[in-house]
Amino acid sequence: MWRPTEVDNSRSAPTSPTIQNSPVSWVTSHLALDDEINIAGIRSSWGGGFTNDGNTDKCGRGYKVFCCPDPEYEEVIDGCAYAGCKIWRVNSGKDCPSGSTEMFNKIDTCGYKGHKYCYTSPADLPDCHWVGGSSGQDFANAKCASTELAVDRASYGDSSSSCDWSRQKVACCTVQKAAREPAKCAADLCTLFPGWCPSDSDEISVSYPKRGELNVLEKRGGGREKYTVLLAGVTIEVIAAAYPPIGKLFTISRAAQVQRWAFWKSKGYCNGGILSVLSLPTGEVARSLYDGLNTEHAIDRQVITKFIEAVISGTLQSGAQPDGLLPMSATWWANKWKEVNAVLAGLPVVGSDNKGTRLQTPNDRIMEAFGSTYNPHPLLTTDAAINGVKGALMGLGPPFSTKTIEKLANAAVNADTDEAVQEVLTTIQAVRPLFLLTRPPFNFSR
């Protein structure tokens, strides 16, 4: 959210800040509260946006800063609450309940006797007071010291005089005990599941069933794979097109067609961002920018097997039967799928005229569309761990079993170390980045 940091004088009255640890949004208010973090010093005289808060007014003086919630704030103020107002007596606030301590008083609510802010004893915020800032009643730049936490804002605070220009004072409390660090999901999934992360030059060598529980998997020269579908007593073979592994993806003759986005699984707090997206440069790409990534097909090649099953049976994986679409004979797929077709043979080659490939069978034409050495446009680079999860899910299977989770959880209890806990938490979190990739805005670039 955008918050002005200096003398504001914006063209519209600023709104009151929210104390709760809410999601990032664009809000016009005063100084950033301590439940928020200014991100990388981002600031602007305009800020805001009509989508989020309807305020794009430019500051008359000073500037706004971009803030996000601080994940540790809620823990520090845990046990804090206002005591409430006495509804049967005018201008009177309730006393703090037994076992809690009054930290400060706010005149703005409950009348002139104030609204008491209470903290469960013993208090981790031992000293609280209102800060008015500078410039007399203007109360500009009201902010807490570096050792204090901003708990609330109010125009009056504990005084009978209010701020001018709809400004607000800030209630500051000394922090006696640091918050616990949030749980981390920073374990290396390639170490936990080695088969997910093949070498740069041979992604076909993956030992874990990264591409699902397929009936196959005859390796062919140049990275071609054979998928086998057994249905209605007929065996149907699908030959997938060869594609460049990550170590060669940006060196092929048509590398300019590769989508220049790299998708990483973030390694940080479990409650933080879980997906990082990097724009790759045109031309040659340094190894450091793709180390740990895989070449990924935006549409997984193994879905062709489920497509063939649906076409032959007339029933989708969901059990639905589309109206007006009649099943195709399994015999056609067995006999015609890999047979040279005169119409297809007459189409232009895929790739350059001199170094392209002529696709003469339905199998070759369709499988080339998934992405290949000659048609790299559907290819991009994705974290090997995300790609491993995707392979299993696209094969309609789990990336790991509940027994795996139980094993890691038991190991964490026995080891009683941060590293062991991170392994089980990272594994549980592993599926989330994949689902983010299928949602806006990431699916637009895929």
Properties at a glance:
single chain, 446 residues, alpha+beta, 3 domains, 18 strands, 18% helix, elongated
Order of SSEs: EEEHEEEEEEEHEEEEEEEHHHHEHHHH
How far apart lie the N and C ends?
Answer: 29 Å
Task: Enumerate the strands of the largest sheet in spatial order, edge to edge or round the barrel.
Answer: 16-14-18-17
Rg: 30 Å
Q: Considering DSSP H and I runs of 4 or more, what fraction of the residues is helical?
A: 10-25%
What class, by secondary structure content?
A: alpha+beta
- Compute the number of helices: 10
Number-wise, the strands total 18
Low-confidence stretches: 1-34, 50-54, 201-222
Reported for the largest beta sheet, the result is: 4 strands, mixed
Could you report the average pLDDT, rounded to the nearest whole number? Answer: 76
Number of domains: 3
Shape: elongated
How much strand?
15-25%
SSE layout and pairing:
Blueprint: E1 2-4, E2 36-44, E3 64-69, H1 73-76, E4 80-82, E5 100-106, E6 115-120, E7 128-131, E8 148-154, E9 169-174, E10 184-185, H2 189-192, E11 218-219, E12 225-231, E13 234-240, E14 261-265, E15 268-269, E16 275-279, E17 293-297, H3 303-313, H4 330-335, H5 342-345, H6 362-368, E18 379-383, H7 384-394, H8 402-415, H9 418-429, H10 432-437
Parallel strand pairs: 14-18
Antiparallel strand pairs: 1-3, 2-3, 4-6, 5-6, 7-9, 8-9, 10-15, 11-12, 12-13, 14-16, 17-18
Helix pairs in contact: 8-9
